[in-house]
Amino acid sequence: RAPRLVVALQSRLYVFSFPHRPTKLFEFDTRDNPKGAPWCPGGAVGEQGHPNVRLLPPGIVDLCPSLERALLVFPGHKCGSLQLVDLGSAKPGTSSAPVTINAHQSEVGCAALSPPGTLVASASRRGTLIRLFCTQSRARLLELRRGTDPATLYCLAFSPDCSFLCAASDKGTGHVFALRDTRLNRRSALARVGKVGPVLGPYVESQWSLASFTVPAEAPGVCAFGRGGRSPSSVIGQC
């Protein structure tokens, strides 16, 4: 989006001025940030119908939609970490140290910034949990559970007013979570029991989606919230 163009390679990320006379402004090293469909024995059928192909989401990177804050998020050097860079305050050609968030214990699989750039949501490659962080304090605000079985998350998307978050995966299901009024989210029936020990604790305390919808299984896709009128209550999916 103007005035920046961001290109993610497997282990490096470039930022250019855009669209007039594009010039390289920044480059950052990242952790391995794969793209494509590597062969995976026993995996799902890929979009071309080849057996044993498991499709991974494209290189992980997101640029804040707000023109007032050019915040960029991409995988950090440490397993499960995210890096945040404010392109508006960084000077081109300098080695500005990104802010690091230790988001997950396993590799990051998906990440997205909220429209104003105040929040970042991420999931690991396991795809069972989605975590929400404050980009300013780096504090973890919410932990949302997509499911219990591992899944590849194809996208995370915030609603325009940051009240909801949508997630779509290769399980053929999209999920919508409430971020502002978290009482709308479902919780495990065991949550009423109280403390259940360190093993089941994280499962019981997680918040589950308030709504879900069906998308074609194994078909990589993206989802987004509508804008204007009644549209903010709608989720648009493209597979």
UniProtKB/TrEMBL annotation:
Q: Which InterPro entries match?
A: PROPPIN, WD40/YVTN_repeat-like_dom_sf, WD40_repeat_dom_sf, WD40_rpt
Primary residence: other
Query: Keywords assigned by UniProt?
Result: Autophagy, Lipid-binding, Repeat, WD repeat
| Any Gene Ontology biological process | autophagy
Where in the cell does this protein reside? Preautophagosomal structure
Q: Which SMART domains match?
A: WD40
Q: Which Pfam families match?
A: PROPPIN (PF21032)
A Gene Ontology CC term for this entry?
A: phagophore assembly site
Q: Which domain of life is it from?
A: Eukaryota
Record-level Gene Ontology MF annotations: lipid binding
Q: Which family does it belong to?
A: Belongs to the WD repeat PROPPIN family.
Supply the name of the protein: WIPI4 protein
Q: Which gene encodes it?
A: Wdr45
